[in-house]
Each structure stands twice: as C-alpha cells, then as structure tokens.
Amino acid sequence: MKAQLGMTRNEAFPTPEQIDRLAELPRERMPLQERDEFDAMREAMPDLERLARSRQRRAMRKFIAIKANNLEDKRKPSEEILAKKAALISRRHRAQ
After folding, report:
1. Is 12 a member of any domain?
2. How far, in Å, are 29, 31, 53, 69 from residue 1 at the CA level?
3. Distance (Å, whole) CA 51 – CA 85
4. pLDDT of 35 higher than 80
5. Domain count of the chain?
6. Residue 61 lies in a domain
7. Does 88 map to a domain?
8. CA separation, residue 63 to residues 3, 53, 66, 78 (Å)
9. Residue among 63, 60, 43, 62 at smallest CA distance from 52
10. What's the pLDDT score for residue 58?
C-alpha cells in the first residue's frame, strides 16, 4: 500500500497528495459468501438467545424494582394521608 502511494519507509503518515491518490485507487473487496436463510439463522442463534436472556434479566430487574417501591410505598404513609391526619389532629385540638 505504501509503495502504491509513493511513501518511503521513513514516512509515518501520508501527505495530502498521497491521500488523494489513495482515494483514486480501485478498491479490491473480498466477495461476500452466499448463504441461505437457514445458515444465517443458525449462525445468529447464539446472539439472539443472549439478547433474549439480557432482555429477560432487564425485565425482571425492573419488575423487582417496581415491587420493592410498591412495598415501600405501602409501608410509608403518603404525604396526602399525613396531611389529612395532621388536619384531623388540629381540628380536634381546636374543638377542645
């Protein structure tokens, strides 16, 4: 590649002119290997299974977090309930 661009061994990076020359060179690409859908799916299955497991784990974590928050909410009275209780207590003290 360096020889095609006209670079010497001492040059670490190509000059702008050499970069332009590189852009003009024809690119040789390896031909893509043809395969049928069955082979493609068989090759992709490990990745698809890993993706499904990660989604299941993420869903379980979210479910557990939601359940944990609901339990905490049930244990702690909401601010509305606390405000109502405070109002009732203050009414009782005024009535006495």
Report:
1. no
2. 15, 20, 44, 61
3. 50
4. no
5. 1
6. yes
7. yes
8. 61, 15, 5, 22
9. 60
10. 92
From the number of C-beta atoms within 10 Å of its C-beta (0-12, 13-18, 19+), residue 18 rates as middle
Q: How many whole angstroms from its chain centre is CA 66?
A: 21
Domain membership of residue 85 as a residue range: 46-96
Q: How far is CA 11 from CA 6, 22, 60, 66, in A?
A: 10, 15, 56, 60
What are 38-81's pLDDT values in tens digits?
888 899 999 999 999 999 999 999 998 888 887 666 666 667 77
Give the residue with greater pLDDT, 49 vs 29.
49
Q: Cβ distance 6 to 21 under 8 Å? A: yes
